Amino acid sequence: MRGSTAGLADTLASGSRAHAALLETADCLFASIVVAPAVVSYWKSTWSLMDLYVLPDQPVSSAAACAIFGLCCDLFLCVFQSKLGKYLRPDHGRLTYYVFSRVYTYVAGVACVGAWRGVWNLLNECTGDSARTLLSTTAAATLSLAALRALRNISAAPFAVAVDGPHDYFDVPTMFRTSSREMALYVLDCIFSVAVVGSLVVFVWRGSWALLDIFLYPDDQVRSVWTSLIIGYVIVLVTFAMQVPMRWAAARLHGAPRLLLVDIYHLISFVATVNVWRGVWGLLDVYYFPDKPKLSNWSTHIISLTLLILLNCSNSILVRGVYIDAEEPAGDCVIFPCHYLRLFFHKERTKKRHRRAIAAAAMATARKTEEASFPLQIPEEKV
């Protein structure tokens, strides 16, 4: 079995188009079947634990406390991202870096969930949950994000996998890409990115999720969540299958038509995402120790986070940074960041080439040494 695994790794690392397509397919499956359920499980359990422990009898105060904590923590991590990246590096101590970087992920993950839960529940308290209100707020938030060219930020797993790489572990892109050297403008940029863009993303998610609750079998929870899950994964499959023609089309368009195409594609992926999340979330509520909420949520919280850390993609639980629509060149703007196995095999291929180069250099050096030590004329020839 070990030999076959090594052979598969060599085959996948060979770099041909067929192998690249195979790796891309494997990455899509990994993101959809492994990462997405784990990320949703983490969010569901953390959210539910806050319901249980953060002022459970005072919903408004609980939401406000979570919003303040989450937004302030997100802002702090955004403002001081360069300091964290400077002092927490593998070359300053691998063990120290690994421990503190994962602590960072845990704190940032709790902060993200807290901010979302706070804003989400405050919206519920302030605007209600009527279909007309939900439609209007969701449409307004969607159009606002599109106008800001930030609509792609509604995306999440399975269309985004964040590998825990040391070079950008603490990076949080801001809306206006302000330099941290201009501190006043940089702080304002961070505030806008966290408070405004982040809240608009919550508006879109909350409205879409609530509309599904209203219109998708509202009187049958089990049927509703199963339907969401099936619809979500069908659209996920279609969306991933559309990547090649969408990339071709985006590469040939410019200006407003290209941006419109990209936004429509991201909206389709968002419909898939919110359905997958709602389906997995609801199934956990229905089937996983429904009568023991503490056991259910604590075990899910620990297992999902541990799995993502061991898979080296724990940062997939974080909602951070602002990404601009269609900012990548040509058709790359419609490629979802689901590069996990491809990065692994790229590293293996790079290491293999490096070893071959070292071996070739060593052989060349040995050959030169041997030629230099070999006498130009043996004694018998002199006679």
TrEMBL record:
It comes from the Eukaryota. GO terms for cellular component: presynaptic membrane. The keyword Methyltransferase does not apply. One of its GO terms (biological process) is neuromuscular synaptic transmission. InterPro entries: Fuseless (IPR032751). It holds the Pfam family Fuseless. Keywords: Membrane, Transmembrane, Transmembrane helix. The chain crosses the membrane at residues 21-40, 60-80, 183-205, 225-246, 258-278, 298-319. The keyword Transmembrane applies. This is Fuseless. It comes from Parnassius mnemosyne (clouded apollo).
